[in-house]
Amino acid sequence: MRILLVEDDDILGDGLRDALDMAGETVDWVQDGVSAVHAISSETFDIMVLDLGLPRMDGLTVLRTIRENHHDLPVLILTARDETEDRVSGLDAGADDYLIKPFAFEELQARLRALMRRRSGSASNILQLNDHVVLDTGAREVRVDGTPINLSRREYALLEELARHRNQVLSKDRITELVYGWGEDVESNALEVHIHHLRKKLAYPLIETVRGVGYRFRDASD
Question: In what helix (H) or strand (E) does residue 117 lie, and over which residues does it extend?
């Protein structure tokens, strides 16, 4: 998943970005509220992790601003404010979840997975892609006919994004936005190479090319 991390603490932000990156997620990090609103208005993310005590624009104002613009991006508030009224204010402003610092990284990961399940309308980490292919977002594992297959980080991220948007045609630009973070060098044919490798490893025709547009993940019933 592609995560927008909004955190003004240098040490925590850097540590979270590195930990999520090592866990296989794509993370973009901003350190103030105005930059967060700009990022949401100009790019595509799966989830936002939002601190409340931010410079230039506080977290609740960021949240209300994006909700007023009818943006349904899942938002997890990550803050040291632990009073009941703070939690109520955050949830009433449009947050989907609220986690208090200090926290266990494993709990943050679990909450992010839960938000992604909720967004995709699934109650489980298991995505049945067809009768032969299963994707486990909790274990970040893909099995073909019961056998785990070895996917690179980018291949897994690409497959998960396509699977979560099944039957939608995703442009090459949007897929690149979802799979790669800011400042990462992307070869001109990188996406095509990943698609080629995925098709070969999956062994079943799940990824369809829509000429001149992008790619679509075929429904499991096809």
Answer: helix 105-120
